[in-house]
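Q: What structure does this chain adopt?
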Amino acid sequence: MTITITAFERSPDGGKGLARDTRVRWALEEMGQPYEVRFLSSAGMAAPEHLAIHPFGQIPTYEDGSLSLFETGSIVFHLAERHAGLLPTERDARARAITWMFAALNTVEPPVFELTNARVFEADKPWSEARLPLVKDRVRARLDRLSAHLGVADWLDGAFSAGDLLMVSVLLRLRMSGILDEYQDLAAYVARGEARPAYARAFAAQFAVNAPSL
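A:
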């Protein structure tokens, strides 16, 4: 059976590749796995049949035969475990790549997502102007350590892995804020991820659905 994932019928980012289905698309493209997409409206995300797959009514979800998964990290990990291309075969290198998957989602993404909320959803609050510099400093604290680890390397731990896929996806959320430009090594790291043919295919697929009509 063909893998089916879910995505926004119209993504809030307008096709910039920030919606989390892009991460799953990218993983599938890296492994050369065909897939179909079921697009959901706001009403569809709250429908009982979707909630039966994703209890929190979000996207993406993953279906392959009798298996249904939700949470991007879980889906990418499942794919990387099942198909070659995103995890090293050597035991210790594999463990380190998995660790970077967790670091991307648990250590780096929370302050990045907090910044997105502060800039987009809290900008009209009376306390927003005073709080925003604090939020940015929390992001920079993570990027300082990430930059120190990356150094002059192309990827986080040897060859490109699922850890890099998720980390690049997280860092892409910083582009509009300008903070990524403060770290030339990390900006170049993100650019290397975007230059991968698999990412280009994933981005194009998401953009084709969400690009504004001319």
